[in-house]
Every structure is written in C-alpha cells, then in structure tokens.
Write a structure and sequence with these properties.
This is Phosphoesterase HXTX. Pfam families: 2_5_RNA_ligase2. With about 170 residues, the protein is an alpha+beta fold. The protein is built from four helices and nine strands, in the order βαββαββαβαβββ. It has a single domain (about 1-165), classed as Alpha-Beta Complex (Cyclic Phosphodiesterase, Chain: A). Helices cover about 30% and strands about 35% of the residues. The strands form two sheets. It has a five-stranded antiparallel beta sheet with strand order 2-6-5-4-7. A hairpin with a 4-residue loop joins strand 8 (about 145-150) and strand 9 (about 155-165). It is globular.
Length: about 170
Amino acid sequence: MYSVNVPVPGRVRQLADQLYPSLIDFETVREDHSCLLKRLGDAPHVSQLQRRAHRALEGAPAVEAQITGIDYFEDPPLGSAPVVYLAVESPGLESIHEQLLAEFDRVEGLEGEDYVPHVTLARGGNLETAQRLAERDIEPVTWTVTELEFWDGAYKLPVSRVSLPA
C-alpha cells in the first residue's frame, strides 16, 4: 500500500523518544514517526500513483502544523487497540487531505470526515495506560510542512518527495 505522509521534524521525534518509557507496555511502539496524510492504494508502478498525486497537489502551499497533545483511539477501525498518538492540528493538512480525496478513493472509517491527523506512538495495550498518557501535558511543537513523502508500505520506506512551495 502506498501513501502520502507528512515527515515530522526532529523535535517531534525527540518528544516521541521522551515518551518511550511510558509506552513500553504496549504491544508495538513506533520507532519511525510521520503523519499519514492519504492512503493511495497499490499500483504496478508507483510512478502512476505519483503522477496522480502530483496533479492533485498542484498549487498546494506549505502549511503550518502543531503537535497539541497526546490522545488515543479507543477502538480504531484497523489493528489492535488502543492507539496512542500525538495529536496534530493543521487546517492546511486537512485541506490537502481533501485535495487528495478528489483524486483517490476514500478509505471508509479512516479518511474524509473520519480523518484525524496524528503521529502514532504505540498500539495494543492497556486502555487505562492510554487514558493516563492522554492526561499528560506536553509542550506544543509547531513546524512548517514544506514537503510530503510518497511512502511504500511494503518496504516501510519513502520512495520520493514532493515540495510544497512557501
């Protein structure tokens, strides 16, 4: 499965690293961090998906994003629960998500009105632990998103990037 992801700055990765000791009781803890913007699906050649995505992203400007806190999905539509994440506020990213929905099919339960920008920290653990983490105060992290990544889910690697003009 290919996707368009938002790379996060080092300050967000540092925050995730600081929270790691509080996450070790979860089934899985993410070591690589990004914000999923839109699932694209599969194609025999990633270049087809990239061209379509580039067309959909034409004219999309750089946008502001902010980590505002820790939250969790109690009952996610996919995978083990709960999912603990860093909440991302960004009307600009939500707008770009909508642009991509005009070109690529919506994944029900995860995209469109159900889309919640976030950076996953861990999943599959104790709900009470997730609730306690969500009560923690963190220092907000603000950054400008100037590029997006085309992500290959099979290999868990970015295959290319697209710049968002300032």
